[in-house]
Specification:
alpha/beta; globular; disordered C terminus; Rossmann fold; six-stranded mixed beta sheet; single chain
């Protein structure tokens, strides 16, 4: 694969956790390329390293060895300030635990990435409302997270990841709290918004209902990428512009 067409390149990535004196190898020599304009899904049993890998890709965790480049940049060797700025501009992350701020409304939560990037608060909230409408929450923009169901909170988290049009969107189980129809609607939106020739999307999932949306599926086990398969059943509905 041409390096200039890559969103992510991981080579021999190793991550070891020290849990009270016992070392646990979460990533054991991971090699993975993710192309621009690609939706890559990571699948495999719980504890196989999927969430650790996307956390390294997103610059939330540092690997112990190997390297991981995102849009040609080595996040490991960035200063903390530069890394934060790079992530704020280029990466949207959907956390499995949602990580919404309880004192803020749905619109205020979604507007946070825009405000961090310097947008005026009123403009940021206006854009946030537009994205919330896209995920089917147009009538809940003023609701606090405690007033939302788990599925609604998940859609707020997805809207927050999309609102600043990041080049890389990383999702940890984005449909786990959603019913089948809502999950398909969210996945359709993710493809429409995220997949262009200069963007990429990485999704960790156990939800076989959404496999068809993937371009490729990487199977993980025991900290390794076991196999990467072309998803021939996926129906591409998006023209990359």
């Amino acid at each position: 694969m041409n390096p200039s067409s890559l969103a992510v390149r991981c080579q021999n990535v190793i991550k070891v956790y020290d849990t009270g004196g016992q070392k646990v190898t979460a990533l054991n020599g991971v090699n993975l390329d993710i192309a621009m304009g690609e939706l890559m899904m990571l699948v495999g049993p719980s504890g196989c390293g999927k969430t650790t890998l996307i956390s390294v890709i997103a610059g939330i965790l540092d690997q112990d060895s190997g390297y991981c480049e995102v849009f040609g940049e080595d996040l490991l060797n960035m200063s903390n300030q530069r890394k934060l700025a790079f992530r704020a501009r280029n990466i949207g992350f959907v956390f499995q635990a949602f990580n919404l701020l309880p004192a803020l409304s749905a619109a205020e939560n979604v507007s946070v990435p825009l405000i961090i990037n310097g947008m005026k608060r009123s403009d940021a909230e206006r854009k946030a409302i537009t994205v919330l409408e896209q995920v089917g929450l147009g009538e809940r923009v003023t609701a606090l997270s405690s007033e939302l169901s788990g599925g609604q909170q998940q859609r707020v988290a997805i809207a927050r990841a999309l609102v600043h049009s990041p080049k890389l969107i990383v999702c940890d189980e984005p449909t786990s709290s959603l019913d089948h129809e809502t999950g398909r609607n969210v996945m359709t939106l993710l493809k429409e918004v995220a997949l262009h020739k200069d963007r990429a999307l990485v999704i960790v999932t156990h939800d076989a209902r959404i496999f068809e949306f993937a371009d490729r599926i990487a199977e993980m086990d025991d900290g390794h990428i076991v196999e990467v398969k072309e998803n021939y059943s996926a129906v591409r509905k998006i023209e990359h512009g």
